[in-house]
Amino acid sequence: MLENELGLLIRELHRANCGDFDWFSEQDFPNFVAVGEVQCHFTSAALVSLTKLGRELHRNRDLPRKRIEQDALIRMLRVVVAHAFFEGVLIAGEASVMRSTKKTLKERLEAEIDKRAGRVTHVFPIATTGFEKAGPLTMGPVELITVRQWIEQVHVNPDPNREELDPAWKQAVLGVGAQVLNRRSEEISETVRYALGNSGAVLRVTVDGFETAFSRKFGRIVAQCCLDILSLLHRVPAVFKKQGIFDWNSRPLYAPFFYEMDGFLGIDSEPNLPYRLTSSQIVSLRRCFNDFQGSIDKVVFGLLNQGVVRNPKLCQRWSTALNWYAEGCREPDDAVAVAKIGTALDVLSGGGEEHGILNMLLVLLEKQEDQSVIEGYGESLTLKVVVFRLYKQAGRSGVLHGTHVDRTKSFDELRQIGEIIAGRALLESLRRLGSYEGADEDRAFRTMVAR
């Protein structure tokens, strides 16, 4: 397969770069890669072969290798092929020749991937409830510090071709001290200040062994997991909406909306004010964090470096369930939120559906199935009834399988119930996971007893 596609690719490259190729026969603009002062052109057929070749190479990479996503590998392969072609090392011929050419191409590709897959510490500005004021937090290898602490320790590489960096750029970012003295310092301070936005803290996530773009993507997943763990410890579902990574998707503090009534314009707004903890609440949260520290470290290490912890699969499963729950808490549509929260319980139970979820909750919450678990909703709800409604009757299955399509039906109450029960289950399963030494298997949370 690889040799055949490679042979087709080489023939197309010779055809496209012979000097008299008719580009009017192609449907798109010429596709090329600059190689020094010349260009290596690719026909549409060459790009098809390149894509097939890249997919096969990605699928058959030996482990452990530097991690890279398929599309990024194909883009990198295009550049590697262009240089190899003009250097005369892409040679087509009999089977032994093609095997040698394939080996050379794979070695060059892996060498290029290695250049783009170093150890990188990603920095994510975040909005929090203010708990970082009591001091830095560590979650496994992840560090949460204030913006001021990060600015004080970060350094910028000197550029011999530009002005010397004015040390005052750090004070300019923080909005204190004198103005910076030169253009370069002003550019850096403005860029950093814009990226930080209104965030008061940053998460520093170190990722090793991933290609640059994939590294950033994975680092963000880990950062969001850490932030969601901290939101879970608050035991207030609304906090998931308040704490987040500061980026283009962050909600503004003031979001006006318009409506018309009796022919007249109305303007209203939905405030998105920060959720701030008092000093006593910060102390209480830090005490809670300390109680869960071992479990949190295990989960985060399990995400970043599966080889250093027990039960890495369960760490992945728990963090995935948390992600579904957090997205459910952030979801504006109540019906979709119920589906996401129900999915969180399904993931945590190892795909147990209604029966598996119920068995898991009986163990984690230490309740009987006919025992009341929720009060204040007009009736005393047993665990069995809650799971039936949340997962099957009107919840996850009903929403995702299309049983409920009435958009006027309210899911607000069921959402609140789901947030309470799933939040308790995630907290208790996190607590138990820290000291768990049993089998690393999908259904472990159904039988994971407290130690």
Descriptive notes:
The chain has 451 residues and is an alpha+beta fold. It folds into 3 domains: 2-115, no CATH class; 118-309, no CATH class; 310-451, no CATH class. 52% of the residues lie in helices and 12% in strands. The protein has 16 helices and 11 strands. It has helices at 2-16, 44-59, 70-86, 95-115, 147-153, 169-174, 183-196, 212-234, 239-242, 279-304, 312-330, 334-348, 353-364, 383-393, 396-400, 412-435, and strands at residues 31-35, 38-42, 120-127, 137-139, 142-146, 201-207, 244-245, 254-261, 264-271, 372-374, 381-382. The protein has a 5-stranded antiparallel beta sheet. A two-stranded antiparallel sheet has the order 1-2. A two-stranded antiparallel ribbon has the order 8-9. β10 and β11 (381-382) form a beta hairpin. The radius of gyration is 27 Å and the shape is globular. The mean pLDDT is 88.
Defining key terms:
451 residues; alpha+beta; 5-stranded antiparallel β-sheet; 16 helices; 11 strands
Question: What does this entry show, briefly?
Answer:
This protein is α+β, with helices and mostly antiparallel strands. It contains 16 helices and eleven strands. The longest helix has 26 residues, at 279-304.
What is the quaternary state of this protein?
Answer: single chain
**Tally of extended strands?**
11
Radius of gyration: 27 Å
Give the helix tally.
16
End-to-end Cα distance: 54 Å
Number of domains: 3
The percentage of residues in β strands lies in 5-15%
Task: List the strand order in the largest sheet.
Answer: 4-5-6-3-7
In terms of structural class, how would the helical and strand content be classed?
Answer: alpha+beta
Largest sheet: 5 strands, antiparallel
Helix-strand pattern: HEEHHHEEEHHHEHHEEEHHHHEEHHH
Unreliable runs: none
Overall shape: globular
Protein name: Apea-like HEPN domain-containing protein
Organism: Stenotrophomonas maltophilia (Pseudomonas maltophilia)
